[in-house]
Fold this sequence. Notes:
Elements: E1 3-5, H1 15-27, E2 44-46, H2 47-67, H3 70-78, E3 80-85, H4 91-111, H5 120-140, H6 144-147, H7 151-161, H8 178-192, H9 200-221, H10 223-229, H11 232-241, E4 246-248, E5 253-257, H12 271-289, H13 293-298, H14 313-342, H15 348-355, H16 359-387, H17 412-444, H18 448-474
Helix pairs in contact: 2-17, 2-18, 4-5, 4-7, 4-9, 5-11, 5-16, 8-12, 9-10, 12-14, 12-16, 14-15, 14-18, 16-17, 17-18
Amino acid sequence: MSGRTEGGAVECLSSRMLLTCLAATLSLPTSAFAHASDRGHFLLLPTGYYLVGGAFAVAVSFLVLALLPAASLDRFWRRRLPLFIFGDSARTTSSLISFAGFVILIAAGLFGSRDPLSNPLPLVIWTLLWAGITLLQGVFGDLWSWLNPWYGPWRLVSRLSGGNNEGRWRLPRWLGCWPAVILFFAFAWFELIDPAPDDPAPLALAAGLYWLFSFLAMLAFGYRAWSRSGEFLTVFFSMVARFAVVERTEDGRLGLCWPGAKLLAAEPLPTSGIAFLLLALSSVSFDGLSKTFFWLGLFGINPLEFPGRTAVIGSGTFGLVLTFVLLAAVFLLAVWFGQRLAGGDHTLRQAAGLLVWSIVPIALAYHVAHYLTTLLVDGQYALAALSDPFALGWNLFGTADMQIEAGIVAGADSAWWLWNVQAGAIILGHVLAVLVAHGFAWRLHPQPSRAALSQFPLTLLMIAYTVFGLWLLATPTVG
């Protein structure tokens, strides 16, 4: 749990308040927030300094960028360090292995332990996949294309049946990636709003049906087409991978580049792609907001006597939609106003389709800050559960009896470095977002003054979102 103090108020925080918050935390039903977003430590730091510092860092980055010549920025982003060639020969094999592991996890969810911290299915999906793979994608590139459980089975069935790799039907171009937007919203709702997202049996049913639905869609429309339009995990992970420092060219050569450099080579996203990226950011933001004392108080809920997730399904659904709508409206307004200031002749969709790529560093930064404690603690539970997936006393990898070090995120020292890593990730993510947005501004407006003017409203939005993100880390929450 986080606590916000102002300056010297840290020293004078009463023990009574601390004990009250501790008692409230222990009295809450643990199953309600047993997955990815829990924070189990007290944070009593002078966060006002960090809020000001974060906003100052983003504002200064904009001023510096406005003074840098376009040629220098272009040379900076284009720098590459070639490494070696890495082919696709083992991709089918790795995907088939991933599919076999997925089948075992589904069986464990249906027939294994009912304890979410002993069953590997919820731990793999919410911790290793959603929290862990996202971070790996953001650093090392598109690992998901090798790990996803669809590609190998699809290749195998296509070869055995002698079918067309492009599928029997073609998706209409106007559809864009709207199917992925809808499915991603359903995923976010299940994670954030459903009363028991960690219950292994319903989670196994949902994951199994989703795999089957996506597999049939890939056979019908082609793997590539459905992966780009409907399979939301592949769409999300491919967008995140554009931020990575590892780049792989079409001929398979690997190289190193600056974080976010690949984003500047992206083409403008369609309206559905804009919606998808904004939903990715708004959903993780609402995950943090929904547990704050502030949000619960808006609906008359006493956070010290939290009634459970079932009681907040309506308000949670409303909040998830509202957060997305507000973020989309403010983002589009900032882009529109920036184009008006710069006097550009690009349409709003063209400008927003390019500038929305600057959301990727922010979304990744929020992911790091939001799920860091989950990776550190639940990741240990996942390693233990994977050694004994059916709770039969197995020890396949020698980790079934490992000691879980939950104290890694508890205590004053741990809280200090953990909060600084989280705060630093948010600040750095927003600074990199300004860098990327400014690179796109040069594509839209080659004149330095017009490019700087076009970015002014968007930079103000990023400063405000920096403050909001740091406030989420500092305000009291349940769970």
